[in-house]
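Please review the protein record below. Let me know how this chain folds according to its tokens.
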Amino acid sequence: MRILLVEDHQAIREMIADHLRERGFAIDAFDRGERALAGARIAPVDAVVLDLGLPDMDGMQLLSALRALQPQVPAVIVTARDGMEERLLGLNSGADDYIVKPFNLLELEARLRAVLRRVGTRRETRYTLGEITFDTVSREATVLGKPLDLTRREAALLEELLRVPGQVITKDRLEDRLYALEDAGSTNALEAAVSRLRRKLAGAHATVSIETKWGIGYRLVESPVP
């Protein structure tokens, strides 16, 4: 999942970005509203986490501009403005949640996942196909109940394939979902991730496999049991 993070305080921005990346999100992080808006024009995002006190514009002004690009994108405000009037203004102006600094990273993550589920971007917290199960909260995959050791990128790839089993996902879409703008993935990088995931699934004797549709993309299919 791709998250747009807008926070001008470098330490806080890096702290949030590092945590969410570790939890399997692709993060496009910006310190200015105009830069964030330019990034959103290049690549759609699944959700927005933003501060209100940006140097070049107010956060609600930015959210309004982002909603013009993606009307349904969920947004979580993270700000030092703790007055009830500011909270009500933020929520009534279209924010899906409002968190006051200082905050707990795990709470921010939980609230972000909650708004994603609430707007329908993420309806499931667990995906299963054949003998493989993936938990989107813990980011853990199991085959026949045994943990599958995956890197963050491999877990994100497996999640995307499990969301639409049997359907082909184009390479361009997978690259958009797995890589942030600052960490743009190449076709070779995606192919390498697919190859590693294939080996791990085969090594765990999973009854699912990744099929390549040459020139198009990949799909996850359940293999017949011998």
